[in-house]
Specification:
Elements (H helix, E strand, L loop, with lengths): L2 H13 L6 H18 L3 H8 L3 H9 L8 H7 L2 H11 L3 H20 L6
């Protein structure tokens, strides 16, 4: 691990950033709203299908216990510039962004699919 990554990981640990999801969840909803505006209602689902994860994302929409994503899936579903944007918006390291997105993306997808107020 490089010195920069080590320092970033230490900073995440000391500040509890890996467990503070509030800023990242807000950024994720903002991002998904933008994808919807630019690519239509199923823009993110279409991206997931193209990456080979369409079935998994559809399960997340219907089952809140469908399980987490992996960091590999996160890297397939979001471009490097998207992940950099999340890190910039939240102050989290890229590693923390990937880890938290892997845990929280299924929950956000499910909640957005079942929200009474549209996102």
């Amino acid at each position: 691990m490089s010195l920069a990554k080590s320092a970033s990981a230490l900073g995440d640990f000391l500040t509890g950033a890996r467990y503070d999801h509030s800023g990242l969840i807000s950024a994720l909803n903002e991002y998904l709203d933008r994808v919807r505006r630019e690519h239509g209602l199923y823009g993110f689902a279409d991206r997931a299908a193209a990456a080979g994860y369409g079935d998994i994302v559809m399960r997340w929409r219907t089952d809140h216990e469908a399980g987490p994503a992996t960091e590999e899936m996160v890297r397939a579903l979001f471009t490097p510039s998207d992940l950099d944007w999340f890190a910039e918006q939240t102050g989290l390291s890229a590693q923390a962004v990937e880890l938290i997105l892997a845990r929280q993306l299924p929950n956000v997808i499910y909640k957005r699919a079942h929200a009474t107020t549209p996102h």
